[in-house]
Amino acid sequence: MKFRTKPAKGTQDILPEDMALRNYVQDTIRNTYREKGFTQIQTPSIENIELLSNSDGGENLRMLFKILKRGEKLDLQAGENDLSDLGLRFDLTLPLSRFYANNRNDLPMPFKAIQIGDVWRAERPQKGRYRQFMQCDVDIIGESSIVSEIELLTTVPEAIKRLGFDNFKIVINDRRLLKEMVLSSQIDEELFGTVCISLDKVDKIGVEGVRNDLAEKGLTEVQIDALIKRMDTDLASLDSDAAREIKQIIDVVSAYYPVEFDPTLVRGMGYYTGSIFEVQSSEFKGSLGGGGRYDTLLNKYQNDPIPAVGFSIGFERIVDLLKSKNVKVETEEKIAFVYIDPIYLSKAVALSQELVGKGKITSLYQVKKNKVGKKLNRLKEEGFTEIIVVDNLEM
Amino acid sequence: MKFRTKPAKGTQDILPEDMALRNYVQDTIRNTYREKGFTQIQTPSIENIELLSNSDGGENLRMLFKILKRGEKLDLQAGENDLSDLGLRFDLTLPLSRFYANNRNDLPMPFKAIQIGDVWRAERPQKGRYRQFMQCDVDIIGESSIVSEIELLTTVPEAIKRLGFDNFKIVINDRRLLKEMVLSSQIDEELFGTVCISLDKVDKIGVEGVRNDLAEKGLTEVQIDALIKRMDTDLASLDSDAAREIKQIIDVVSAYYPVEFDPTLVRGMGYYTGSIFEVQSSEFKGSLGGGGRYDTLLNKYQNDPIPAVGFSIGFERIVDLLKSKNVKVETEEKIAFVYIDPIYLSKAVALSQELVGKGKITSLYQVKKNKVGKKLNRLKEEGFTEIIVVDNLEM
Questions:
Q1: pLDDT single digits (tens) A265-312
Q2: Would you say B67 and A65 are in contact if contact means Cβ atoms under 8 Å apart?
Q3: A330 and chain B in contact, CB less than 8 A
Q4: Is residue A266 part of a domain?
């Protein structure tokens, strides 16, 4: 019996060239984050099912991979909810919340965390979307002042720059400003969520599109006019804590990276409570990463409120973009030692061993005499910069 | 409702100091392997359940984490075997076999693979054993000559050396020599497996212990005497392909790393067909890694036979040993910029930004005036080598 050799539906095998690119992206991000005082942690890929199921995961909960109970614990008569005791994590934020509650006595305050790891979602397979993909998050837990936002906004863009992206800008808004905008337009607070969904589409459908969208949702022309007018209001003219904070963040960060206020930036996740931000590139639609402040999310797992801000860089998108730009990771000198007669094996080994620790890549190949020409061509294709045929030559 | 904040049973949260050590070990291993011409690949953590269940996984199959089918595919009336369509991988060798069959046309021949990744086994939790742990494998696929063994045995020990282990040696044997030994002692081939189990224990129970063990299994004194005598036979006096190959491997490798023949080395896994080897340290019992040749394992997934040799380094054991030796990863210069009055925030940012890309770690802290002393002490404890209080000082 031969087996299906394709990877499981929606997952991928990663070949050497792609893996080298992924390692390069991961190392660049990690090194940049480390320079800015963040330290890496890791949580398990599997979490107790109660933690995952009772989270604010929204749509992600429908896409949960649940793990079957094992041995005596498995009762086939039980309902679906009793068949599983564990699940694969669908993001890194929920595990971080649990991790922080579990380990806070052993962590600095504030705690600046790097997380790099795979997450799993049973998404409908489609181009560029995988059921297992990597996330890279930085979070600062325990600091309520804007120094956290400023640290994140001078860290993540630096990594993006080092990865070779030039034409990007940071856009920033605040959940509280969005709310002020809706309320000051005499729109009922209940409609806040649905109005945000319309605003979020302005890049795609334009201001007129947003107008139509809001009208269809039953807003009056007066309300819509007020809202659209407010979208043009200068940040400096707004007089609230949120506006002052966003202005100050922009003042400081703009000395180093392009950053601008975007009153229509919404970001989907429901748990943000203050600043929200994204890195956008003019080279393509969508963002290279985003995040915001979530000062209440951790409350669920502790007895006291803990402020937190996070920024997730779009690892898979960045890898795809670099691949589409045909970016290759530079390789060191690669030397192949080829021999035909096995009596030269130990000589080939000796030549290779002389180069150990000298930053060169070496590899040994035993080749049949009638296949030498073909093999040498193949090694050139594989990127070997030097090919040495080992025989009775004096070195 | 507050949630259980411990990680799932048998799994662990990894804190910054341990994570830095794990990254150091992983990077050292990967860099050493890359220098020797190996390239990294990655397979998904989840595989189709048929692949996992129909493997030679032995004991590991009892410890499989199975994933529940989702949505319409889940039929609660179905038996246990129909409830699951996926599982978490329990090792990296089975996925490599599938990967190679799936991608061989896009891979060099021979293919020298690095795999570094987590595997999952529902083991009974015990000290030092986790249900999620990391494996680091190197394999050479497609080469039947001993150049593969020699490449592995000059690669893995180099990584172990770079990680600071001095007192280690490679021990080597061959499955074919084990068989010759059993058959030449007039022992029935059927008893090969059980005799190996006894031989494997010689380090723990001594030669007398092995004698008793074999006697209990019904072997005659003549057979046991022959077997024990053979254990002392010089490798040079043996006249078989296997003996000549092992001798040649030892001849070449011994110029670089200590290596010796061990006629009682067995190694558990059933799939080895030729050479088997381990790295042992005099500092503790057990091995730092091991492997061998498995020339038939891949046949299951292809139509033609493909030779292969692999070596798995004991990543978790090495991390534990370095931790017990209190090895810390050297950190770069760490500078904290501390300010009390928020008007100095932008100055603190500017000072930190001046150090970007200079191989230093910087971090910003807003501190309340009455807590400055305490904070400075805490930052020293956290390993900051320099603490700069930012105020109206001229720089």
A1: 998 767 899 999 999 998 878 899 999 999 988 888 887 889 999 999
A2: yes
A3: no
A4: no
Q: Is A393 on the interface with B (CB under 8 A)?
A: no
What part of B 53-72 touches A (C-beta under 8 Å)?
54, 65-68, 70
Cβ–Cβ contact B139 with A under 8 A: no
* DSSP string of A202-229, one letter each residue: HHHHHHHHHHHHHHHTT--HHHHHHHHH
Q: How far apart are CA B288 and CA B183, in angstroms?
A: 31
B141 CB contacts (<8 Å, ≥6 apart)?
B96, B100, B110, B111, B113, B298, B306, B307, B308
Instruction: Tell whether pTM > 0.90.
Output: yes
Report the run of H or E that residue B308 belongs to, with start and end: strand B308-313
With pLDDT > 90 as the criterion, what percentage of chain A qualifies?
Answer: 79
Residues in chain A with CB shorter than 8 Å from the CB of B131 are 46
CB atoms within 10 A of CB B230: 16
At B330-379, the pLDDT tens digits run 777 999 999 999 999 999 999 999 999 898 999 999 999 999 999 999 99
In chain A, the residue whose alpha carbon lies closest to the alpha carbon of B381 is A108
Which of B294, B324, B354 is where one domain is finished?
A: B324
- Contact present, B337 and B388 (Cβ < 8 Å): yes
Residue in A40, A118, A122 nearest the CB of B70:
A122
Which residues of B are less than 8 Å from A124 in CB distance?
none
**Are A312 and A349 members of one domain?**
no
Among the candidates B296, B324, B352, a domain finishes at B324
- Token duo for residue B193: 């497996």
Interface contact flag, B35 A357, Cβ < 8 Å? yes
Please say whether the beta carbons of B202 and B210 come within 8 A: yes
Give the pair of three-digit tokens for residue A26. 């991961």
In a mutational test of the A interface, the residue from B89, B94, B356, B368 whose CB has the highest number of chain A CBs within 10 Å is: B356
Q: Residues of B35-59 as b/e, b for ≥16 C-beta within 10 angstroms?
A: bbbbbbbbbbbbbbbebbeebebee
Chain A residues touching residue B254 (CB < 8 angstroms): none
Position B42 in a domain: yes
Q: How far is the CA of A206 from the CAs of A203, A361, B101, B339, in angstroms?
A: 6, 54, 50, 44
CB–CB of A275/A115 below 8 Å?
no
Q: Is B39 helix (H, G, I), strand (E, B) or coil?
A: strand
Q: Which residues, 6 or more positions from B45, have their beta carbon under 8 angstroms from its beta carbon?
A: A45, A118, A120, A132, B88, B89, B117, B118, B120
Residues 231-290 of B with CB under 8 A from A: 248, 251-252, 255-256
pLDDT digits (tens, 9 = 90+) for B68-121: 998 877 777 777 778 999 999 999 999 999 999 999 999 999 999 999 999 999
Distance CA A177, CA B349 (A): 25
The two three-digit tokens of residue B15, written as one number: 């804190």
Counting the structural domains of chain B, the total is 2
Cβ atoms of B294 and B272 closer than 8 Å: yes
Q: Does A342 touch chain B (CB under 8 A)?
A: yes
Which chain A residue has its CA at the smallest distance from B30's CA?
A23
Same domain, B357 and B314: no
Residue A239 burial (CB count, 10 A): 7
Q: For residue B2, give the DSSP letter.
A: P
Q: For residue A122, give its domain range.
A: 16-167+282-324
Nearest to B106 among A15, A334, A356 (CB): A15
